[in-house]
């Protein structure tokens, strides 16, 4: 199974959900997803933390192919890294909505045959932002298992008509900013 392969390769990081949904052969994952692996820490082969991750990722996998991807990346330049690392695992018609800290405007970008909806985000949680973007409410998830909640979100994304214009990757790259995601926590 694809998620098991990712786990064996230590590509799932800070996972909080990795389970089969109640319907058919669909698996869901929520957590961080490694984009650039950490260096080897010692002679036993243990790794240091990753250099880059897709934070707060939510994935759906069916027939060992990624059919839905959402998450947060720190900078637009990580999109090619992500596609290079995982693009072979994309299902035809994969749906992807990514939040990006350093873009000045939301846009749809076709990159290597896949349409990505890219939305600026410096504060907030990906799951909550995407629920709001889809016009969903907490009641839409009532009584669902954690994996089935990801499916419910995916079903909303399938009907979603992004209101953002289309740009090329290079056009959006020219509009990047120095914005960083705000982090909150203990001082």
Structure report:
By secondary structure, this protein is α/β, with parallel strands linked by helices. It contains 5 helices and 8 strands; from the N terminus they run αββββαβββααβα. The chain has helices spanning 2-8, 78-86, 126-134, 146-159, 169-173; strands at 12-20, 26-36, 52-62, 65-73, 90-100, 107-111, 114-120, 166-167. The chain has an 8-stranded mixed beta sheet, sandwiched between helices. Strand 4, helix 2 and strand 5 (90-100) form a beta-alpha-beta unit. It starts with a helix and ends in a 14-residue tail after the last helix.
Give a topology summary.
Elements (H helix, E strand, L loop, with lengths): L1 H7 L3 E9 L5 E11 L15 E11 L2 E9 L4 H9 L3 E11 L6 E5 L2 E7 L5 H9 L11 H14 L6 E2 L1 H5 L14
Parallel strand pairs: 4-5, 5-7, 6-8
Antiparallel strand pairs: 1-2, 2-3, 3-4, 6-7
Short précis:
The chain has 187 residues and is of the alpha/beta class. It has 5 helices and 8 strands, in the order αββββαβββααβα.
Number of strands: 8
Distance between the termini: 41 Å
Order of helices and strands: HEEEEHEEEHHEH
Q: Could you estimate the helical fraction of the residues in percent?
A: 10-25%
Mean pLDDT: 93
User: What count of domains describes the coordinates?
Assistant: 1
Across the major sheet, the strand order is: 1-2-3-4-5-7-6-8
Rg on CA atoms, Å: 16 Å
Q: pLDDT below 50 for ≥5 consecutive residues: which ranges?
A: none
What class do helices, strands and sheet pairing give? alpha/beta
* Approximate strand percentage: 25-35%
Main beta sheet, described? 8 strands, mixed
Outline type: globular
Count of helical regions: 5
């Amino acid at each position: 199974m694809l998620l098991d392969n990712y786990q064996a390769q230590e590509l799932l990081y800070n996972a909080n959900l990795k389970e089969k949904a109640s319907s058919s052969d669909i698996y869901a994952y929520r957590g961080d997803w490694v984009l650039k692996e950490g260096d080897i820490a010692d002679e036993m082969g243990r790794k240091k933390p990753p250099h880059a991750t897709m934070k707060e990722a939510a994935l759906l996998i069916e027939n060992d192919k990624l059919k839905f991807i959402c998450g947060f990346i720190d900078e637009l330049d990580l999109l090619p890294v992500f596609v290079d690392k995982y693009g072979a695992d994309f299902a035809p018609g994969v749906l992807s909505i990514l939040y990006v800290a350093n873009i000045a405007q939301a846009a749809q970008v076709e990159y290597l045959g896949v349409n990505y909806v890219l939305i600026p985000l410096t504060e907030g949680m990906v799951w909550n932002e995407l629920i709001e973007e889809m016009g969903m409410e907490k009641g839409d998830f009532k009584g669902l298992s954690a994996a089935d909640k990801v499916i419910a979100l995916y079903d909303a994304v399938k009907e979603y008509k992004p209101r953002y214009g289309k740009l090329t990757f290079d056009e959006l790259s020219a509009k990047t900013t120095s914005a960083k995601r705000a982090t909150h926590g203990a001082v």
